[in-house]
């Protein structure tokens, strides 16, 4: 009722004992479940503005990408990534959708934006 303060008055004098298990039952390997990947949150807000910057690292061998996305609710999302020679704009945009950073409808728009940025800086 009064927030966190009353919780401090009820400290336990000694820790609670946890029941012990003597041995773990052996699990049948055929019945063992494979771990399922955690589902990622789906982004529901759309991107209203995009800015991108690319810089060469200090050793001049790899590009560093900084992407600023402004979403519908004025949230600013800044993402950074060291580009690999095999990276392309479509795969990067698809990965951002997969991990819930952008809305699925913005995938093609972001891929085109990144492609134009790659040509601008790498030329």
The largest β sheet comes out as: 3 strands, antiparallel
* Beta-strand content: 15-25%
Structure annotation, total helices? 3
Which CATH top level class of the domain at 47-122 fits? Answer: Alpha Beta
**Helix proportion range:** 10-25%
The overall strand count is 3
SS content category: alpha+beta
* Order of neighbouring strands in the sheet with most strands: 1-2-3
- Which consecutive residue ranges, at least 5 long each, have pLDDT under 50? none
Q: What best-fitting shape do the alpha-carbon axes yield?
A: globular
CATH architecture label of the domain at 47-122: Roll
Ends apart, CA distance between termini: 64 Å
CATH topology of the domain at 47-122: Ubiquitin-like (UB roll)
Would you identify the CATH H-level superfamily of the domain at 47-122? Phosphatidylinositol 3-kinase Catalytic Subunit, Chain A, domain 1
The H-and-E topology, N to C, reads as: HEEEHH
Overall pLDDT metric: 81
Rg, nearest Å: 24 Å
């Amino acid at each position: 009722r009064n927030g966190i303060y009353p919780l401090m008055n009820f400290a336990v004098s000694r820790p609670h004992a946890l029941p012990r298990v003597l041995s773990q039952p052996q699990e049948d390997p055929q019945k063992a479940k494979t771990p399922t990947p955690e589902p990622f949150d789906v982004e529901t807000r759309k991107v209203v503005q995009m800015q991108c910057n690319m810089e060469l690292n200090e050793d001049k061998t790899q590009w560093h990408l900084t992407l600023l996305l402004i979403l519908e609710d004025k949230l600013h999302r800044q993402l950074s990534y060291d580009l690999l020679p095999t990276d392309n704009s479509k795969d990067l945009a698809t990965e951002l959708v997969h991990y819930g950073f952008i809305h699925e409808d913005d995938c093609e728009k972001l891929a085109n934006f990144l492609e134009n940025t790659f040509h601008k800086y790498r030329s």
